[in-house]
């Protein structure tokens, strides 16, 4: 299995995952999650004409800066201090407006042509109330004809069953840190909720374990939440090639307006 985007980015609940708030741990993220087909998908959705874009849960800012380099007016928002420190220091970071906030507390007069939530960040909204607060607030921040685009893993595929130490163990080289050994391990899976641990092993012998929890929402529940938030038109895809969403598709990709 690919490790890409296994760990969700950070449009977080009130308690931010240590993997993103701690600068040393956050610095490992890009090495684990380089740009891939999902990045190409979001860049393609933005298009070539200049747009006003919000990257909600921007993490280390890789995508936000790439949007800006392509001529878009970009805001990157995230509540995780470690991630935002990396984003602001990234080459090209001065091209982006950075805001320290989560999706529910975002408050800006800017209205966006496009809002994206990448890296399966939507799965950190664990309750119906958290989903409603995030979707409703982001809907209010869309410009006329604006679109919200995000993805969540298809629960029918049961991807978490592959999140074991044997299947996910890897070593990455991190600038300024050195080699880091990482693996994931699921600790419980009950209904739509999966708890897992990320294990970090540093060259100096330091070991850190961070707990996380994700929700694997069903498509029909998501459709209802989008409708309640005021999204009248929704396109559904099942993978980054824009193939239709099928029962066995790995992703549930949403383009909503």
From TrEMBL:
InterPro entries: Methyltransf_25, SAM-dependent_MTases_sf. Pfam families: Methyltransf_25. The keyword tRNA-binding does not apply. CDD domains: AdoMet_MTases. Gene3D superfamilies: Vaccinia Virus protein VP39. GO terms for molecular function: methyltransferase activity. SUPFAM superfamilies: S-adenosyl-L-methionine-dependent methyltransferases (SSF53335). This is SAM-dependent methyltransferase. It comes from Aminobacter niigataensis.
């Amino acid at each position: 299995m690919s490790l890409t985007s296994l760990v969700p980015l950070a449009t977080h609940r009130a308690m931010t995952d240590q993997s993103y708030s701690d600068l040393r741990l956050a610095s490992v993220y890009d090495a684990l999650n380089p740009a891939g087909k999902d990045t190409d998908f979001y860049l393609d959705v933005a298009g070539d004409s200049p747009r006003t874009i919000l990257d909600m849960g921007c993490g280390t800012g890789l995508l936000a800066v790439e949007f800006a380099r392509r001529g878009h007016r970009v805001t990157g928002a995230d509540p995780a201090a470690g991630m935002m420190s990396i984003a602001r220091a990234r080459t090209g970071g001065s091209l982006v407006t950075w805001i320290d906030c989560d999706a529910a507390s975002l408050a800006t007069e800017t209205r966006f042509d496009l809002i994206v939530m990448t890296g399966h960040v939507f799965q950190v909204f664990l309750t119906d109330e958290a989903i409603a607060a995030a979707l409703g607030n982001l809907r209010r921040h869309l410009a006329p004809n604006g679109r919200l685009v995000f993805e969540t893993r298809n629960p029918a595929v049961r991807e978490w069953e592959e999140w074991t130490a044997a299947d996910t163990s890897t070593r990455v080289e991190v600038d300024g840190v050195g080699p880091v050994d990482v693996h994931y391990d699921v600790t419980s899976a009950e209904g739509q909720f999966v708890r897992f641990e990320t294990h970090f092993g540093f060259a100096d012998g330091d070991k850190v374990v961070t707990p996380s929890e994700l929700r694997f929402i069903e498509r029909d529940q998501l459709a209802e939440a989008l409708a309640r938030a005021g999204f009248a038109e929704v396109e559904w895809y099942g993978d980054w090639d824009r193939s239709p969403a099928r029962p066995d598709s790995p992703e549930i990709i949403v383009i909503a307006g």
